[in-house]
Write a structure and sequence with these properties.
Blueprint: H1 16-27, E1 35-37, H2 41-50, E2 55-57, H3 64-70, H4 81-84, H5 86-100, H6 105-111, E3 114-121, H7 129-138, H8 151-159, E4 163-170, E5 175-185, E6 188-194, H9 203-216, E7 222-226, H10 239-242, E8 246-247, E9 252-256, E10 267-271
Parallel strand pairs: 1-2, 3-10, 6-7
Antiparallel strand pairs: 3-4, 4-5, 5-6, 7-9, 8-9
């Protein structure tokens, strides 16, 4: 494998556990989402001791290829455009985060030239649905409820009037594609998930601003949002308060529609018109 196919490279004399810690922190990854491969039992033991949730593979290198090809964790129903471009996106994320260290937060955000577009999916036959389903079922850290969905559950959700919004983001480094999904049921934002690739750019605020605009266009005046604490979703615990919501009981927040929430000034934001639903046979 050529060196260029690796998204992040750490080649030094530091302990491997230290390098892994730096990669996890820089990429916003959880240890349980990582596989460590090494033929040295001492290295495997050291990494496992530092990160008990990390998965390790060894000692027989002749089995690695078979395990990686056939393990349940590596099987997917489909490969979306965003997944196919993941290595390039992570490489650009590293480049972006390197730039962050050289500038103030305000100057850094202004330099990104961020564009964000919020669109709505009306059914499971929409071409963007596969990515939405993938994202909502693999996102742990920025996931306001932790709920996983089946395609059948989504079909029922659409039949009952649920709305699914998808967030598409780009900056001067790369086009990230669809990185966020927001589900709305009536006057409730039932769930919001977002890829860690765009954490720290404030695009989540633009997404919520767009959803609030779409909801108020249909008459919503008091809007509610759910937040269920999980062991992994620390990244989004303050989301609703940052968007002007107030606590309203267990796992609930609310805000009134006026004044409207504004997208951050450094983001060129667009809300696409709501589509006409094209329902599948199941819907």
């Amino acid at each position: 494998m050529p060196l260029e196919v690796f998204a992040v490279r750490k080649i030094n004399w530091q302990p491997k556990a230290d390098n892994i810690e730096a990669i996890l922190r820089g990429m916003n990854l959880l240890p349980k989402s990582v596989l460590f491969i090494d033929d040295n039992p001492v290295e495997r033991a050291a990494v496992k001791a530092a990160f008990p949730d990390i998965r390790v593979l060894g000692p027989n290198p002749y089995l690695w290829r078979r395990i990686l090809l056939w393990a349940p964790e590596t099987q997917v129903a489909a490969i979306t455009t965003e997944s196919a471009a993941r290595t390039e996106m992570v490489q650009k994320q590293v480049e972006r985060e390197t730039q962050r260290k050289k500038l103030s937060r305000e100057d850094f955000l202004a330099s990104l030239e961020v564009t964000a577009r919020l669109g709505e999916i009306a059914s499971t036959v929409d071409g963007r649905f596969a990515r939405a389903l993938e994202l909502i079922n693999k996102t742990n850290q920025f996931n306001t409820t932790g709920k996983r969905w089946t395609q059948q559950e989504f079909a029922a959700f659409f039949r009952e009037g649920g709305r699914c919004f998808v967030l598409d983001v780009a900056d001067r480094f790369t086009a990230y594609g669809i990185v966020g999904v927001l589900l709305v049921a009536g006057n409730q934002i039932a769930q919001f998930v977002m890829s860690c690739r765009v954490v720290g750019m404030d695009v989540e605020i633009a997404a919520v601003a767009g959803v609030l605009q779409a909801m108020t266009a249909r008459g919503a005046r008091e809007i509610h949002a759910s937040l269920v604490h999980t062991s992994a979703n620390l990244l989004c615990r303050d989301l609703w308060e940052r968007c002007g919501f107030l606590p309203a009981g267990a796992e609930q927040y609310q805000r009134i529609a006026d004044p409207p929430l504004a997208a951050p000034a450094h983001i060129a934001f667009r809300l696409d018109p709501a589509p006409q639903p094209a329902l599948s046979a199941a819907e």
